[in-house]
Amino acid sequence: MEASTRCAVGALALAYIATPALRAFRVGYLTDFFAPSLAAVLMLRYWSGGRKEVVRELRGIATDWTVTPLRAVVGCADLTVPLLDRVARLLSAALTLPKYAVSYGPLCPILYTRWGDVASEVGFIATRSFAVSTQLSPLAIAVWVACFVAVLRIYVASIELVQHRFWSHGCFEPASRPVAWLLWVWGAAGGQGGALTWVAIHRRHHRFTDAPGDPHSPHAPPREACAGATPVAHPYPRGCGLAYAHFFWMTDRDNFAFQPQYVGDLYRSMPELLLLELLSGRVGPLWSRGAEEIVFRLATACLAHDPFESWHHPAALRALASDVCFLAFEVMTQGSWAVNSVLHMSAAGHGGAALGRSVDAPWLAHWLGGGHIHRSHHAEPKLATVAAAEQTDFCDHFTRAMERAGLVRRVRRRSTEEEVKKD
């Protein structure tokens, strides 16, 4: 294939992937979301770093839309670069553009969907639950609570176990390629992107923990400091770092590209991950509908003999199943975000390149599934679990179950001697 043909194919692929972003930039979006968000970003940049930061932000936007895609397309003709690396660069450039349509700046559409719409829905569910609670039997309450806990733990494991321990740190290996595909689906069900996007962000976090370059630190900016250059300012004013680390880091342009250099080992060993990355946004809704259907059928079977027959109507049971799955997903999401924010607010100072300001939070044990032992994880990130015998880590229960079933192997754990020494 000639160089011009390779470039043309790359340009067509980039245009196809970036189509949603181009469609979103209609007049209504520009006036209602992008212009106010851009104004807010420039104000924050000026506040944190002065005029130089404002110029850098505008130049960065122009680069993302012109220079970076052009380099990716032209790079398709460079045969000195491996094919998978060229595809990864093209994919990174293309996936950056749609993020401007949904998550650029503090006033972006995702702010209203992830906070405004969610808050409204939670309020509606709370009102309905209060009205229903007096009409439910103890059996029905127990069934719905058990369903909530089960769905929550499966969602938590999708992020903490699959995206974090498996894809990011390789704490265990799948027994076969199909098992790896199933794990990819499970991880994408958490609604935080595909494996490549999630892992690239997380590996940056471990490389620059609470230092310049960490994508979601309450204390340091997401851009790496250059030797001899002026110190990089945090994109948010002092006192707002917690909010940035919890949510607003996702609206920062510096975190849009997934940076292939951090995930080269993954897509070289499993090239299909590059294609699956394009499908990650479709997994969450399908998984959610499947979970609602399973919860609905389980509740129907468990409550077949419940004396409160008014709640046996399929529509009522289906509505409650939808509420349970929705709340479980939102609780999981807030918990995973809290790992980035709350668990990096140590007042004890910076613990070095590996530890940063990470802390352990035992009070979040039943919420984060082992993610609450965060400082210990930063000290030993390759272990499948860092929990001591008396600590809770329900994600490790999933690992042990998969290991006994022959689905995973080579699980990295401390030896008995190391456990005794640690205790």
Question: How large a portion of the residues is in β-strands, by DSSP E?
Answer: under 5%
Structural class, by secondary structure, is mainly alpha
Secondary-structure element order, N to C: HHHHHHHHEHHHHHHHHHHEH
**How many domains make up the coordinates?**
2
How many extended strands?
A: 2
Radius of gyration: 23 Å
What would you call the shape?
globular
Mean pLDDT score: 84
General description of the model:
The protein has helices at about 5-15, 20-25, 25-50, 50-65, 65-75, 85-100, 110-135, 140-170, 175-190, 195-205, 240-245, 265-270, 270-275, 280-300, 315-340, 365-370, 375-380, 395-405, 415-420, and strands spanning about 175, 410. With about 425 residues, it is mostly helical. It folds into 2 domains: about 1-105, no CATH class; about 130-420, no CATH class. The protein is globular, with a radius of gyration of 23 Å. The model has no long low-confidence stretch (mean pLDDT about 85).
